[in-house]
Amino acid sequence: MDNNRLSPDFIFESSWEVCNKVGGIYAVLSTRAKTLVGRLRDNLVFIGPDCWGEKPCPYFKEVKSLYADWRQKALADGLHVRVGRWLVPGSPVAVLVDFTPYYAQKNTIYGQLWEDFQVDSLHAYGDYDEASMFSYAAGLVVESFYLFYLGATKRVIYHGNEWMTGLGLLYIQKHVPAIATIFTTHATSIGRSIAGNNKPLYDYLAGYNGNQMAAELNMQSKHSIERQTAHHVDCFTTVSDITARECAQLLEKPVDVVLPNGFENNFIPKGKRFNMKRQEARKRLLAVANALLGEDFGDDTMLVATSGRYEFRNKGIDVYIDAINRLRYDDRLQRPVVAFIDVPAWVGEPRKDLQERLESGQRFDTPLPMPQLTHTLHNTDSDKVLSMMRYLRMDNGKDDKVKLIFVPCYLTGDDGIINLSYYDVLLGYDLCVFPSYYEPWGYTPLESVAFKVPCITTDLAGFGLWVNKELGRYGELNDGVKVVHRTDSNYHDVADNIEEALCEYSQFNAALVKSSRTNAEKLSKKALWSEFIKYYDEAYDIALRNASNRIKL
User: pTM surpassing 0.85?
Assistant: First the structure.
């Protein structure tokens, strides 16, 4: 670490996903925690929403002795919190705050926000109020804790993630100016909305005005809080170079630092255990394929997958299906292929007929009805994956040398069909495909290579750009990551390139497969938090210096 840099004595960090597993930010924070705890110990406090009601939070353990004197003071001030440990490596301190009492003050809070920072909350709808009341409550937690324990002698940082923490960051900026503030947008709300509404984001980025697009897409309030927070905090950051360009254009504020998302690999099995778990996963996946399709698949079967959130276009699920379809007609394919889509949809329950076959332990030579699907869906007729498969006549017929299976549920180990957790399933794949159109970073490809599973991604994903920068050229399959060039308008080229790469991998001999898997793992080690924490040190230094200068003014 640079000895001239200022470093914090205490860090508060908040997110809607603290002790609340919703999406990728949970992975960012929960895996980074161990590295920061190693430095700060209990001088790192995560703040999340207490949205569990009477149900226990599975990611949090309350410790009533922890900061008990402050908790009493907070309660006397009307602040309802639970203090404990986040059940992730490092066991950091976590404060869950009940934000519901602040709904009664909502209009006053929004009015003050307009007066102080010109944030437009008039057009709020959906989750805006919920996020804002949490954000306000989190700001009160920071203020209360700081005044009770810390004070001006300590270098303190408050780090908020996503627009959902903006209101609290602005509150701290005004009421406790000695605390240095950092704001990380993992994806701009307006950029995600442009992409999600099938508008060309990249070709026309230089011509987009964020405020104008927010009005057109009914995103004024989210855009406003995000924009104003970016302009007023002591350090504004994002997670990749591609999102940094988005911020400069749509929020009209260049970022101060790019904070790439790292990973911890301490839970990945090693040696014999790794091989055993890989064999278990392959055995289960092939058993599911046999029971569903009524065909025998040998150990030479190439198992391919995509996974992530159900954003059909943004995550490239559409182009993945298209590429798999094209592969069906490629005579150069050297191995049978079973491809999976592990994406949670509007799932009903595990298929009873499939469960019965799997429980019997027998082998089957006839397919089940609808042999593309492992679970029932509430919207079978309108589901986008199934609709595209029907359109392309991908019905997993006997003569198809490539099969595609949709697993439309969270892989938590108890889904009723696969019955393995996502990481345990991931071990069994030969290749993963994540052809994202909109992907600020991309944890799924990073997780994939950490488990020695080579992957295909695009240069519209932050991770794909990072791979290219690391290699000094476009990644290829032998590097462990194939990076496909993607634009607003080259969809068919992307599908062709993925199909070509899948075909190429099917032709790899054992030595090339081993080399690709080894290089994938090597690349993942360059993205460990021990490598990426230096960018946070830079952000902490900028924030602390700017806060110090602000107080002197």
Answer: yes
